[in-house]
Amino acid sequence: MIDQCVKEEVLDTEEGPLYVKRSELTGRSSLIPVVLLHGFSFTSDVWSEIGLLQALCKNGIPFVAPDMPYGMKVKRSFRSRDPGRNIEALAEALRAVEFSDVYMVGASLGGYIALRYTVAKDSVRGLTLIAPVNSLEESILSYFKSNPVPVQVVYGSNDTIVSRSEMEEFARLVGGELIVYEGAPHPAYLKYPERFIADVVKHYNRVVSSAT
After folding, report:
1. What domains can you pick out in the chain, each with its CATH number?
2. Rounded-to-integer distance, Cα 139 and Cα 118, Å
């Protein structure tokens, strides 16, 4: 049950308080934990609303889902759109929950922060990104050219915020896999939650298998 698996708490970071949902799984420390970064218009609640946290619990996969400071609707964490502050607060929170190497899931602005975190901290072993914004920044592409990280890109064909050509180019340049959800909007996982969960778990398992 989700209520038995998830712990909610506010972590004190040097940047400010950060509210998180995290798994209380024990005995699974050999698995790479999943870090979930919501989009600008959402909070960490979206991951339980679509059933992703329940699926991770069911599969015994540890996770942490913060209410990120950049979020428009975030009220339980401090607020800031500055990427550096978001990255440092997240890094401190992950240390607090004893996560080192991680697998990241990031939606839109959350995908951009996941990419920037990957470049800054060099501890991300795989990513699922849902239409990440600003993905073609030179610092990001340069990092992935020298440090190949398995990337899965999910894109809704009805996205009006990020273009398909940008996602195709990004996936090509980082050697990633592009999955198009036909008829889906920018937050493509909302239209096809079960498919999205299956895609995340499949790619995560592939990353974990290649790391062992």
Report:
1. 2-211 (3.40.50.1820)
2. 11
CA atoms within 13 A on the CB side of 23: 28
Q: What is the pLDDT of residue 31?
A: 87
155, containing H or E segment:
strand 151-156
Measured from the Cβ of residue 36, the count of other Cβ atoms closer than 10 Å reads 26
What the block records as the tokens of 158 is 């009805």
Instruction: In whole angstroms, give the CA distance from residue 107 to residue 125.
Output: 17
Q: How far apart are CA 212 and CA 208, in angstroms?
A: 7
Q: Tokens at residue 135, please?
A: 């993905």
Residues in the chain: 212
**Rounded distance between C-alpha atoms, residue 151 and residue 161, angstroms:** 20
Residues of the chain short of pLDDT 70, as ranges, are 1-3, 25-29, 212
pLDDT tens digits along 173-204: 999 999 999 999 999 999 999 999 999 999 99
CA distance 184 to 5: 30
Residue 33 is given by DSSP the state P
Give the whole-angstrom CA distance, residue 171 versus residue 46: 25
Nearest CA among 29, 71, 61, 67 for reference residue 128: 61
The fraction of the chain above a pLDDT of 90, given in percent, is: 90
Q: Dihedrals φ, ψ of 129, to 5°?
A: -120, 130
Query: Residue 26: its pLDDT value, please?
Result: 47
